Amino acid sequence: MKKGLFILSVFVLAVTINGQDINEDALLNAMHSISSHDLLEYVKIQCDDKYQGRLTGTKGYQDCAEWLAGEFAEWGLAPAGENGSWYQWFKVPYTLVHPDCALSLHVPLKNGGTILKQYKYITEYMPGSTSGNGEVTGEVVYAGYGITAPDLDYDDYAGIDVKGKIILIEREAPVTPGAGAEKFNPWYQYSFHQAKLENAVRHGASGMVYNYGPISNPNNAYNEKFIYVHIGDSVVRDIFSGTGINHLETVRKINETLKPQSFNTKKVVTIKMSTEHFPDGIGCNIIGLIKGSDPELSKEVIIVGGHLDHLGKCYDIMPGANDNASAVAVLMGVAKALAQNKIPLKRSVLFIAFGSEEQAIMGSKAYIDHPALPLGKSILLNMDGVGIGHSIGANAGMNFPILWYYIEDANNKYIHRQLTTNYFANLGRSRLDAARFLRAGVPSLSFYTYGSINYYHIPLDNIEIIKPEIMEDLCQLLFVAVVRMANSENSLR
Predict the structure, then answer these.
(1) Mean pLDDT of residues grouped by 10 in the chain (493 residues)?
(2) DSSP code string of 384-405
(3) Whole-prediction pTM value?
(4) Hey, which CATH number is domain 96-277, 3.30.479.30, 1.10.1060.10, 3.50.30.30, 2.60.40.10?
(5) What are the backbone angles phi and psi of residue 280, rounded to the nearest 5°?
(6) CATH homologous superfamily for 2-92+281-487?
């Protein structure tokens, strides 16, 4: 039945679109004004060392935001932030990570002494991006997922003493979103990094080695006395070595039985972190508007979004070329092509470069709490990581077949890239700006690209991995789709 309705809706849309009076030559000329050279240059600018990795709250982020607002102004967009400005402000605490960081394992010698095995930055560990400052040495206690859930009769801390010790825990929860809403939702609140860190502090742990990557991630709670790092497989293997317990088997047992398997590994590690915390940081979204010409349809808005921020320094600069300078570059390409070519638009188009996506997705929350235009008349085309590979994907196209039709039609007519979509249940903790909009009832597609090497949340996410051709194709595709959406007589919702 759903498939039949989808085909019918596509047929109706096709008739309507083909009947519109759109100047095809003007559309194609504007589309071809979008240049991969320009888009690559926008990525390079955002990744410049002067912006220090664009961590929301820092001067580097704000300087980059001002550069973007200047481009919007030059192209003729109207500011749509607070008090006639380009900016929507919100509070965002942040932490700077400095170079004097380390992780080491105390290896006992037969003569009774010990030596330190130093782990390698990036490949074996990454500093905790919201860690407290200082050094801690302690026994490592394996604490499963680090979850205490009385309502689920589950407690990874039951029967173990972690006071003054260092916990080793897993990311996520023993039940995943793939199990479906009924099974996963009771675990949802416990899967957050913040919940795990705060639970560790309540149980008296002094530090944490978090089996997470190892990647950098500033999306966590902060406690000045709690020291932690992210680790990878080699560190986990060393901690489990000689215990007689297999790590992968232990995780499998937790997941299958929903019973904790916590134990004292009797290993000792030292974590050294050099950080500086700023509890009163201020961040912003950057918002530009092209107002529609139709008295009624202009009240409806197509939002083109992507987050401007990245991870700052941890402790090297994190350029964030694919995540997410690529998306902001494509957003800029669409904005410039629409504004400078003076393409007629009946609906309004709003461009939002979100802040603080990496820090608990606070920028999109700030917009949803105080939208520039009504959420009930909005749809979102979001982008996150669109600078690599040869194929284009989007979350939630099957959720919103009306929106997906415009995307698929533009691709079939002009771009001819491999294009995929899915049904997006949006069950897990929010990881995308689009996830917040979906929960607020806003129809949203979230685009990404794939098919070549990608580095996530480490310094190697730099300009060297970017494929400007895929950015150009996505930018042209979205440009055409936005024009068609903005001028359609049919509802987009």
Answers:
(1) 42 41 86 98 98 98 98 98 98 98 95 93 98 98 98 98 98 96 97 98 98 97 98 98 98 98 98 98 98 97 98 98 98 98 96 98 98 98 98 98 98 98 92 96 98 97 98 98 97 94
(2) SS-SSSSEEEEETTTT-HHHHH
(3) 0.94
(4) 3.50.30.30
(5) -110, 30
(6) Zn peptidases (3.40.630.10)
